[in-house]
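Quick log. Single chain, no ligands specified.
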Amino acid sequence: MSSIMIGITDCDHPSVEIEQTVIRNASAQMVHHDCKTEEDVILHCADADGLLNQYAPLTRNVLSKLPRCKVIVRYGVGVNNVDVQAATDHGIQICNVPDYGVDEVSDHALALMYTLTRKTLLLGNAIRNGDWDFSISRPILRLRGQTVGVVGLGRIGSAFAQKAHGAGFKVIGFDRREAGGESLPFVERVTFEDLLERSDMISIHCPLTEDTHNLFGTKELQAMKSTAYLINTARGSIIDEAALAQALSEGWIAGAALDVMEFEPPKSDNPLLKHENCIITPHVAWYSEQAFDELKRKAAEEAIRVLSGEKPHYPVNQL
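-> predicted structure:
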C-alpha cells in the first residue's frame, strides 16, 4: 500500500502518532492538514485516497473534487458535517467510530443526572460563597424508584439504561426506529408522548437527524413534569435552546444538564449560562484517555480496512 495516501482533514488532538503508526504499519502514507473551509479541503486533500475527518465541511461541492477518495472516516459518531448522500453518489464509503466511548458517555450522563438531582454543584458553589446550608437544595427527592426516560436505545442509550436500572431506577425508553435499539427486558418501550409525561428524568441518546432536530421544543418541554430534569449528551440541536431557556425561566421543568450545545462554545449572552439549574460541560462526555486512544486507532484502522478492499466495520452509507 506504499502508494496509498491518507489525509487528515483536521484534528484538534495534541498528537496523531496513533494514526501515523497504524497507517505506517500498513505501508501507507499519511498527511495531517488543518482544513477549516471547503476550499481548504479541496486544496489540500484532492490527492488523498482516504480521509480522516473531524470538523472540516465535506459538502457535495467538496466531495465532487476528491477524485481519488474512496473512504472517509469521521472521528466520532455523528456525521453531520458530511453530505452522506453526495458521498454515496460519488462512490465514497463513509464510516464512523460508534463504539469508542459508550461507557464514557453513559457514565457522564449519569454523573450529570446525579449532579442535578442531588444538587451537588449548587451546594458546592454555595459553600465557596460562605453559605453552609443544606436547605437551599430543597427539595431533594429519593432517587430509587423514580422513572428515567431514555430517548434512543442504541449502544450508549442502552448502556445508560442498564446502569440506571442497576441503580434502582425504573427505566422507560423510546427509539424512533420501531424495531431499533437493544432488546432490554428491564426497559419498558413507550411512545415519545408517554415518555415525556411519565419521566422524572430524561436522558437523550439519539442521533441528530432531520426528524430529531429540535425534538425537544416548547410543546415537548411543556409536556414534561415540572419536577423533571433533562440531560443531553447527544447533539445540541436536538433541543431548541430558546425553548429550554424559557422552560427554565418559567418553571416548566426543574433543570437541565447539557454536554452539547447548538453552537460550541456558546456565546457569552446565551441565556442558558445564567440559569443555576442548568449545568453545562464542554462536550467532554466522550472523553477518557482510553477512549481517546481507541477513537484514533479505530478511525485509522477503518480507513486502511476499506482501502485494502475489505468490508468496513462501521459503514454509515451502503455502496
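The first strand starts at residue 5 and ends at 8.
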